Amino acid sequence: MEYQLNTSGTSVEISLTGELSFSDLKTFRELLTDTINASSAGAKQWILNLVNLKYIDSAGLGLVLRMKATAEKEQKELTIRAAESGDVAQALEITKFHELINLEKN
Amino acid sequence: MVPTEEIELLRYKSKILVVDDNELICRFISTLLSKAGFCDVKFVLSGKAALEIIEDEKPACVISDIEMPEMNGFQLLEILKSNILTKDIPVLVITAHDDRENRNEVLGHGASTVLSKPIDSPLLVNLVTSILDRKNLLDLLSLYHERLSLELELATDMQVDLLPDKEQTNKIKEKYNVNIEGHFQPSSELGGDLWYVKELNATQFMFFLADFSGHGISASINTFRLNTLLNKINVPSKKPSDFLSVINNELCQIMPIGQFCTLLCIKVDVKENTITYSGAAAPPFICITEDTMTLCDVSGIPLGIQENNTYNEHSLNFSKNSALFAYSDALYETKFRNNHPLGIEGVYQLVEEIKEKKSANLMQNILDHFYLEVDRSRLTDDLTTVLITR
């Protein structure tokens, strides 16, 4: 998985590409630290953009849940942006993630 | 990783054996190494004497001359390298003939390194240091590896013991006249899948298939937690959806953030000829009756994330000659040779094709198809499949 941060006004957009799985634990920790640092200027909203993510496994979904917990701790509002269809959409559908985290279909 | 201090400590305690027919040189090297801090240096004056001591003491490093009467350095090297007990002892060879041919011959005989005469003292100390550090590091790593392999082997046995065995499935067969057949293949020694059968009364039993997020050791520890929970859990309503809610609340107490569990829960009723099922993010299972095949949706919020979730519940006809095929996500998510996974639709089609052929063993056929495409020893996720037939 690779990530890119874009700060604009009151939100930080975290865009993921590639595959999010078990082996991304370390990268994801860095991502969380980077996101916290990027929001220090006053961003209130985190947007996790999964539109260009190809694949996510259960451990990857677990990492998204960690981000949710971090967002709550940092008092940020977390929204997931995901594609309408594909592997990631299917994983989010089976796990009913929209009942846990704001989900925007793109 | 192995701490540097431990390697340094081992370095100076390591046994070193010097072999040279010239006692003066032996004493010179021994003194030099002692002064450099090496505490356990011995010397012998012949290859024969060296072999005796090596057998008894297994030194961590041998420093040997080449030209010696009776047994020369080459012969000593050959004997050491051909014996499984001594082949890993590094040998530093000191030779007066420092030409290219001779150097390569010495190395070709298995020496770790060659040093020419007259001896360059600091170089000798440096070479001995690096030889010992490498040897000790390798020894520590292989010891660690051995211990871990043994522990994993025991843990693997424990995990396999968690799953219903022949004795238990035979009991189910006798009591309910239902066949249950399971397959479990973890991606490494340990896995995060668990299937379980709980008898409810004379005509009903509950089947569970769980998959913890991630895989390997951490996920497998969670399967032990769930197994304990399933053993003691008692839900008076006997409704699958209530089972899910109760298990969810219990798991929320013990699961760390970012870990969760998908669970399929099916109640089989052999008197009413029905199944009632409920799921939390489980892959859709397939219900096969004589003339229908249904892909049963069991999506839902996984267990262990958020307390007080409620779950949907559905019922289906499950009369004689019906079957249920449940599986973990590895079955449809693992990439085949063409780099594409089977997909949920693919699993459904495969079951349909095999069913049409009316072959006797549905699950074995599915697994055969899967393992034709995927190397069993290189699974990226744990695979569990269970077939329940009436």
From TrEMBL, chain A:
Domain STAS, first and last residues per copy: 1-106
GO MF entry, a single one: anti-sigma factor antagonist activity
Superkingdom classification of source: Bacteria
PROSITE patterns found in the cross-reference section: STAS (PS50801)
InterPro entries: Anti-sigma_ant (IPR003658), MlaB-like_STAS (IPR058548), STAS_dom (IPR002645), STAS_dom_sf (IPR036513)
Family as reported in the entry's similarity comment: Belongs to the anti-sigma-factor antagonist family.
NCBIfam families registered for this protein in UniProt: ant_ant_sig
Designated name of the protein: Anti-sigma factor antagonist
Protein's organism: Kiloniella spongiae
Automatic annotation (TrEMBL), chain B:
PTM sites of type 4-aspartylphosphate: 65
Gene Ontology terms, MF aspect: phosphatase activity
All copies of domain Response regulatory, residue ranges: 15-132
Keyword Glycosyltransferase tagged: no
CDD domains, sorted: REC (cd00156)
Keyword Nucleotide-binding: no
InterPro entries in the cross-refs: Bact_Sigma-Reg, CheY-like_superfamily, PPM-type-like_dom_sf, PPM-type_phosphatase-like_dom, Sig_transdc_resp-reg_receiver
Annotated coiled-coil segments of the chain: none
GO biological process terms, semicolon-separated: phosphorelay signal transduction system
SUPFAM superfamilies (alphabetical): CheY-like
Keywords: Hydrolase, Phosphoprotein
Protein name: Response regulatory domain-containing protein
Species annotation: Kiloniella spongiae
